[in-house]
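Go through this pair.

…
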Amino acid sequence: MDLSRVILGTIVTEKAERLKAAGKTYTLKVATAATKVDVQKALKEFYDIDVRSVRVLRTRAKHRLLGQGKVMEKRHAMKKVMVTLAKDSKPLDLAAFSKN
């Protein structure tokens, strides 16, 4: 997989902000085909960050029936990761993307 297309953005929720403030755990939205190894390599290559652990979560789509056989998708399916950085690693800044 092309490593420049692995990380799609950050997840901004109360829990994600609490984890970021408490330690060095960041929650990121990633491509559905991305693996733990892909995420680790992308963070090392483009952001120069050492990763201690990567946890993967898959979120199912949430549907709502509208009647007459119509279905509306309220929440799209996505894949997110919770990345814990090493102690000597610098903080993650997604704006500092550098493609070598």
Q: What stands out?
A: The domain at 3-87 is CATH 3.30.70.330 (Alpha-Beta Plaits). Helices lie at 14-22, 36-47. Residues 19 and 29 are 15 Å apart (CA to CA).
